[in-house]
Amino acid sequence: MDAGHLDRILTAVRSSGAAWGTRPGSERGAALDRAGHALEANRDRLIEVMASETGKTIAEADVEVSEAVDFAHYYASLARELDAVQGAVFVPSALTVVTPPWNFPVAIPSGGVLAALAAGSGVVIKPAPQARRAAAVMVEALWEAGIPQELLVLVDVAENDLGRQLVADPRVDRVILTGSYETAKLFRSWRPDLPLLAETSGKNAIIVTPSADYDLAVADIVKSAFGHAGQKCSAASLVILVGSAARSERFRNQLVDATRSLRVGYPQDPVSQMGPLIEPASGKLLHALTTLGADEEWLVEPRPLDDTGRLWSPGIRTGVQPGTYFHLTEFFGPVLGIMTARTLEEAIRFQNAIEYGLTAGLHSLDSDELAQWLDTVEAGNLYVNRGITGAIVRRQPFGGWKRSSVGAGTKAGGPNYLLGLGSWQPESGASSSSLHLRGLEPRVQDLIESGQSSMDYPAFDLVRRSALSDAIAVATEYHQAKDVSGLGVERNIFRYRPVPVAIRLSEGSDLPDLLRVMAAATVARSAFTVSTSIALPRGTQQLLKAREVEVVVESDEHWLSRVRSRRITAHRIRLIGGDPVALATALGGTPDVAIYSGAVTPPDGSKCCRSSTSRPSRSRTIASATRRRSRKG
Questions:
Q1: Annotated active-site positions, please?
Q2: Which of 155, 184, 393, 567 is surrounded by the fewest CB atoms within 10 Å?
Q3: Tens digits of per-residue pLDDT, 184-200?
Q4: Global pTM?
Q5: Any idea where the domains of the chain sit in the sequence?
Q6: Cα(121)–Cα(113) distance, rounded to whole angstroms?
């Protein structure tokens, strides 16, 4: 393929995507349901190609096909919901590029492709070079289901100038990436304003306290650390033993025995429990498999099992110290480090010291320890008395915090994922005849009343009704912890957590939109700062000052100058009006800041339009085992 051929593909898929996006969500949903049936019918082909191409064991590959099927049917249901939103109209992206990894060669590519199709976009998928055949079989199955070939195209381009042309092309509306943080940073260096939705790296730890069920803890640690040879972004790379758990010979002997008992081999052998690396170990992974840091010792020393450099026995090192190379670095292979902590509080500090926040685990039967951990740990998927890999569509939506998540996206396989794959336009509703602020907490009432004299009635009514709508949304959804699956034998809790946001009202935008967004942030209990191009009403100024909210009145030029000089430190910016491209350029395309620049939408919608207003929260999935496990011995 040359540059001209790629250019023609992008033009054709964008055109097909624009037409596809005009079809109702029910029609797109029906197409995805057919795709799910086609993936199920091709289970044997998909398992075979994953095993032969990427070294997936049969057990690992089988559940991956099931996940792909789940993505199809779940996103089909979400596609239908997009048409039912009141107060805002969803505008699909015309062209989405999906750039998946090799470690989940079917589930993750299909998840990205199916989500984009469900949202009404044309899709170009560029598979990882190590998993191109698996992606091709998956795409072929979707074509067999009736997804038009001009709507979904696989391009097998090298990761060179053509790869850059694909990602950075201005006709691309969205890029869905699952890969490393470094890859996200590279993509943004090519195009600073790239609308990038990325699930990135993880350096994940499981804490074990003295109150844990050691038998269960060992089983979950070994599965989490060495499943697929540790080549999962959610894999356990660290175990942090608290107090007497660090001195338990029983625990260590069981961990050693379970690790050495793993059957390591190629997937051609159906009894293999841990397969090979995708490529010969090199770089930092080879270093982790062969070199100890100061104070570290091998509890189980990893060894190459053949001359390919791909097949290694699993390894465990002890004596990993806080702040060291192994503590903070992701290795993506079958090597586990053990740290010790005097208290649970100290263990949580070690767990949170990592710049990623993808998955985290706790093994404890103490309810107070559980509550302390849930309130302070920094990760997107939290697992209690369970393994920390293997998130399940709808039941355990997947996505992280900090540098494990890039862009204004939401958790894959969760209820909000399609919302970021397009834009939202306001749909005005009828004004009411009431001026009351009943139903709003006093902090929100005071904020709206502070600006009432500076708004005409329609503007005031819109802000008032919007805040009431947000209050309902918060009370019924965003401040509720819900187990939508309700399995009984285990709990899978989905909850939101408020995060700080910098709000910018740009030149040419109006006070009501700013009050609308500030009210939403207040309802959500998110801390915020304000930069505004217009002077605020005196009452609003005094109120925000009393609440210690930073307010700066400045021009767009001065605002962007502060952004360029890194005097704006927020990780999320809500831009009202203005130029999001100029803001992204001023930020240098950094993946560390998410920009929310959609139109401010009116009330009376479902969670879809409310989420597009300010997005003040981060979601977490908590999975815990409620079944009781007996201790042996």
A1: 199, 233
A2: 567
A3: 999 999 999 999 999 99
A4: 0.94
A5: 3-200+404-420, 204-396, 440-487+496-618
A6: 9
